[in-house]
Amino acid sequence: MGLKHGKGFSIVLSAILMKCVGIWFADNPFEQRLRNGTLIYTVIAIVFGVWVQAEDLFHTWDDFGARTYIACNIMCLNIALLKIFIISLHKKKFLGLVEYMDRNFWHSNYAPYEQMIFLSWKRVCTYFICIFTFFTEASIMGYAIRPIVANVGRNDSDRILPFNMWINLPWTLTPYFEITFVLQVLSLYHVGVCYICCDNFLCIMNLHVAGQFRILQNRLKNIHRSQSADYKHEKWNDRALQSQEKQYYTFKSYVQQHQALIAYCAELEHIFSPIVLAQVLTFSLLICFVGYQAILADVPITRRIIFVNLLTSSMCQLLMFTYSCDCLIRESAAIATAAYAVPWMKFSMDKFGKQLRRDLQFVVMRTTRPCCLTANKFFAVSLETYTSVLSTAMSYFTLLKQNSSHEMGL
């Protein structure tokens, strides 16, 4: 099946990337076989890239600059492979979360103010995903274009590939060179797609769930008003007041919505927490090595441009998933304030008034532990994680700079 309601640019782009990887809905057995074949091809392409980089690392171990360059590539490859492995392992649950979003979040029957909330979070998704995708794809294109530019004016025996090949074949000659070049570019493309597609959907899910928490806050604060009334100008009066029984059952439906959002966050945590842990652990080193290549390394200008784009992409990626996790924490915790804003003082002490007050207490107690994504249960990810990772990356960068100076004998 496909998406029925989610037609936003960020969602469409992310869905296309997931299809390129091979993890998406299938409408028939043929399409499912196509998805399975694409997934197998994706894994083979990444493993091929890992093999190429491992061989290059073995033969250039004495070169400090080459080691840091290959370290950047290997970390990106391993992270991409880990993401695909984990999402494939939880494929059914992941697609279930996407289907739930399509059915419950991406519809148009919101009240006007709720529609504004939904669109604002949707715009944030688009900004993050467009910037992250642009700089990552620019880096991928740079890897492919750099050897094409460098080979201009060279003879057949002096041509270079995007990545070094240490095989006993005359790969600089036709047709070996062309075949090897195409294989490396195809592998490179799939690594880039795998690197961004999972993070895109993590950002989309986090921000859309945070938006649903914001919408739920608005509904709780305005529970005494008619759904068709103007929320901004309506006042508490007898004509706007619903029966207490009807308001209690409306409140009960909001509590059920809150429970559904909590369960959704629990599923997100179950699927993505290992990925989040791996990214937090590797981001400090990755930003350090990429920053070294972009700023300090004695490399051609074309390679420097590649790593400037990759550094920008890494910073945006780190901000994207820490900010989205932080929004999830803040908006889920804000349910307590919204629940207390329910006009419970105006309810009489009858059956439904007492039930509503008791249920409000449970809601406030539950929100003392906000929803969050953790790094595999070790710690909750928030914007503080962003500053911590950058601080660690700067410490590593200083050590790397000192080590490079020592290697060069300065």
Short description:
This protein has 410 residues and is mainly α. It has helices spanning 9-21, 29-59, 64-89, 91-104, 112-150, 176-221, 244-296, 301-333, 335-340, 351-366, 383-407. Helix 5 (112-150) runs antiparallel to helix 6 and helix 5 packs antiparallel against helix 8 (301-333).
Could you name the key traits of this structure?
410 residues; mainly alpha; 11 helices
Approximately how much helix is present in the residues? Answer: over 70%
How many runs of DSSP E, i.e. beta strands?
0
Distance between the termini: 61 Å
- Biggest beta sheet summary: none
Structural class: mainly alpha
- Report the radius of gyration as a whole number of Å: 26 Å
One letter per element, helices H and strands E, the order comes to HHHHHHHHHHH
Mean model confidence by pLDDT = 81
Proportion of strand residues:
under 5%
Described by the principal axes of the CA atoms, the overall outline is: elongated
Low-confidence parts = 226-242
Our count of helices gives 11
